[in-house]
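PLIN3 protein
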Amino acid sequence: LPTPQVEARTLAMLQGLLHQLHAACSHLAVGARAFPSSVQETAGHVRHGVEGIQASLASARSFQELSGLVLAQSREAVTRAQLSLEGLLEHVGQHTPLPWLVGPFAPALVEYPEDVPVDMSKWEGCVTVG
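Predicted structure tokens:
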């Protein structure tokens, strides 16, 4: 059996990780405003799931204080959050325009629409791909 000090440190570490995860999810939810409503909703669900886990574990001082139901619900919420995040990453990878991802590293792609010819003479000395 773990000592009370080890349990307390483990719970504190878990709560710290959940705090960091919540901050990241909040940042994700704000950034998702540029995406369709389904993506925004998914980001919000992830954040709320993390908030629920935080609330469940916030007052616990030992693992004995946590019921099996709370642990099972927390595990399910983490699994749902992971699946949702994987879905968000897949959506971003499939639906985000290349110039948005590439940004300033490819100014010719960003500054000029595809149907406008680009004067490549000003890009002499640059390595081109494709």
